[in-house]
Amino acid sequence: MSKLLSAGFIRLRKDKIFWIALIFMFGAGVFFPVMRYMDMQQSGYINNIDNGFFACALFIGIVMAVFCSLFIGTEYSDGTIRNKVVIGQKRTSIYLSNLIICAIVSIVMCAAFLIAYLCVGIPLLGFFEMGIKLVLLFTLAVFVLSIAFASIFTLISMLNHNKAITAVVCILLAFLLLFAGAQLYKMLNEPETNMGLITTENGQEYQEIPNPNYLEDGKREVVQFLYDFVPGGQALQCVSLEANNIVVLPVYSLIIIILTTGIGMFFFRKKELK
User: For residue 255, is it left (φ>0), alpha (ψ between -120 and 50) or beta?
Assistant: First the structure.
């Protein structure tokens, strides 16, 4: 596998998509604190570095969807994967080498954003208000989440030889996961009661009435689990710093990585290469 990894990293250094994505993530890491500082100067509202520090979690899925689909898709369009099999490379090694490269790229992308945010944000916005332990936990959650995204899109890219279709599917899935996370968040934040206009003996009055969309204990636990498990839900929690179960988020991401890798390798070994 070492030869596959070496060849992959050599190709990575020449990959335009990688460098464009890296510049984008670094630029976003500079842009966010600068905009927060300008907003603080205009509004007088105090912005600390905590707010927005993990914003990379919101778009790392989209970035990795583009990168994985095009990086791996190019190996199919160029016939590289087929040639690797022909010369005797094991399919498991081929799959894992691409996964490792995509996983490392995902960490590099997040690190570029966070390092840029720190370098610009600390002088402008000051140091963290939340504890260092919590910062490290969120950082771990974001890094493992980025690998989970890479693992999902590696699975799709390795099982589909059409680069264009793979790119479309991966990008749509990235947005779908974020949308699912937003919907789960909305469900969890439904109030128990709403103000409603009802008719009484004294006429029409506004009173609190039960909210039919409010989740009771059993349903709430299920939705909370999905919100913690789905990558889009994890991303929203990391961005907002409102994770109720921050310790379990990396565990769920690790489960996603193991499941998608196992499924991907199983079907790739059976895939007919054209």
Answer: alpha
Contacts of 99 (CB under 8 A, 6+ apart): 150, 151, 154, 261, 264
Neighbours of 77 (CB within 10 A): 13
Q: What is the dihedral of CA 70, 71, 77, 81, to 10 degrees?
A: -150
Amino acid at 185: Y
User: pLDDT for 148-189, tens place per residue?
Assistant: 999 999 999 999 989 999 999 999 999 999 999 999 999 998
Return all residues near 266 (Cβ < 8 A) that are at least 6 apart.
none
Query: pTM (2 decimals)?
Result: 0.92
- Decide if 105 contacts 22 (C-beta within 8 A): no
Nearest to 66 by CA among 141, 200, 139, 163: 163
Residue 103: C-alpha distances to residues 68, 99, 251, 261 (Å): 10, 6, 16, 12
Domain ranges within the chain, ordered by starting residue: 2-171+240-270
107 Cβ contact partners less than 8 Å away, ≥ 6 residues apart = 143, 146, 147
Q: How many CA atoms lie within 13 A of 2 on its CB side?
A: 0
88: how many CB neighbours lie within 10 A of its CB?
Answer: 6
Q: Outline where DSSP puts E strands in the chain.
A: 193-200, 203-210
